[in-house]
Give the backbone structure.
Amino acid sequence: MKPNRKAIPKATEHQVREQCGQACANPACRKWNTATHELHHIDGDRSRSVIENLILMCANCHSEEGQGIISTAQVMTWKRMAEFGYLPPPAGHEPVSRTTMRDNHGVIADHVENLTIKQTKDKSGKSVPLPGTVGAHPDMRDYANYLSKRYIDWRKKGIAMGIDKRRFSPASAQGILCEGFGSQSSLIVPQTHFHKWVTQAQGKIDATVWGKINPHRNYHTWEEHLAQRHG
Ligand SMILES: [Zn+2]
């Protein structure tokens, strides 16, 4: 199909096929039929036949890519998934445990939006931030909430894609992000520890399965947050 297919060294082709698990790299397809599958040059340059630029696709998905139905950005994400070993098993070869996990995660996902952060309340039940804490500083509070939500969203995304296999309850996110800070909520972290907390939270977002393969930045910085709010 591709004029320069022959230019791909056999050893490279073998590596690419191995990396993709001998199946179409489209996670929604994963058709397993090596005889009819094709190697696709991700950046469109057919002379650049290096492993980084090649991915295995079935004839159908390859044709959809050619028509622009499947974007280059999508293919790049699949390539990163292949590199990290995150592609789902080939179609028809899926172990039972994965199906079970997906069902569990579906249940968890329904509760994600209900995340609430416990704080001190006054007589009318309104949350009162403790003086000197992140919660008492509007900019710090908003940025902490932003990073917390991002962490949850990134975990959710990996789980929805079937590539994050660790159990996760959104209610545990605050505890995870505050690890080592002696608190269960970022809002009661002392303002003096805010930057340390931010560095840890950003690191944990980068370390999520989606954070590692996301082709874009995982979050905006504290400085950008301030610039957005105060110009
Ligand atoms: Zn396919």
Residues 138-160 form the longest helix (23 residues). The chain has two domains: 5-84, 96-230.
